Amino acid sequence: MDKIIVKGGRPLQGEVAVSGAKNAALPILASALLADGKSVYRNVPDLADVVTMLKVLNTMGCSTARLTGRKKDVCEVAVEGPITPEAPYDLVKTMRASVLVLGPLVARFGRARVSMPGGCAIGARPIDQHLKGLKALGADITLTEGYVEARAKQLKGATVNFDVITVTGTENVMMAAVLARGRTVLENCAREPEVEELARVLNKMGARIEGAGTSVITIDGVDALKPVEHAILPDRIEAGTLMVAAAITGGNVLVKHAVPEHLESVILKLRETGCTITSEDRGLRVKAPKVVDSVNVKTTEHPGFPTDMQAQLMGLMTVASGTSVISESIFENRFMHVPELHRMGADITIQGHTAVVKGVKRLSGAPVMATDLRASASLVLAGLRAEGKTEVARIYHLDRGYERLERKLRTLGADIRRVKA
Questions:
Q1: Rounded to 5 degrees, what are φ and ψ at 173?
Q2: Is 120 a catalytic residue?
């Protein structure tokens, strides 16, 4: 397996551009199933998860292509000819977001067979809310041999109140409802920018959606949609990760294309640490103090502090002045990076869903192992600060959500490289 090797101690300086958002690209690629013809998507990040989604669409009979050369961030998805409405286990097991094809398939083709995604390293993340919403719209749901099978001659509008806030559940049911007969009202919806972005794309395709970005979304079903051309919004989690990279190294970095409105909670916490953050025409500039102050944080649904930034902030807090308390309220197993940070000299104590982090004056490079996507980012960030050499193994996790992160950090002056297996 590939490894990333970091030699720490260099303050990051310069400019770096944020890629397109993974968590927006995946549902948007799935939404191509809702219309005949070729949809064209720009600013699509070159990530392992995107490759997997394109494979899922391929297995169903869609034609997919990623353009090369200067347009390498462009993906095309063509829905032409017969579609096999099934997402097999061997693909869904590698990326649970594959379940996002469930709503479009049952809405457009009247049936779907999608492997149950199961759990993952950071928690179970069940799809019961997806199924609850599809049932409310009239789908007949059965679970057999590890697959979800959904059938409906014609979905019908209904009111769906999600028991818990779910991003992919909101997206899946929203995609199903755009072709349902009548009005659908979704309550207790996820409010993430990626949900808004999906609704924006669906409306460009001819859907009638209002309220995306709030807790209540109203959808008036239409008879058919048309293919679309769309540029994916910048990835707020990558932007936040690069901002923390500047902070943990005592650097001065312009994070190009970062959208301030999508990062308000992250900006607030970084300012509390003593960082100066200013908006510029092309993004956000982060100027870090020599020593950051400790801050307390609790992850929660958007617009609160994102769980996908918890591990990165914890990496920063390992070298902060004072003691910070980090509470994780979204996923039950999202402190798996803590033992690896311990290997680098961090002082962290876990108490249930809370981590108490006492800042230390120095971290030491060490061999560490990534356990999930965001944990891998936190270890790279810690390596940027640590004295000596840090080797981060199992970086296939990193490649699921960051487009060539080591190259971007190297342009800012980091001593970092990827070593092929």
A1: -70, -35
A2: yes
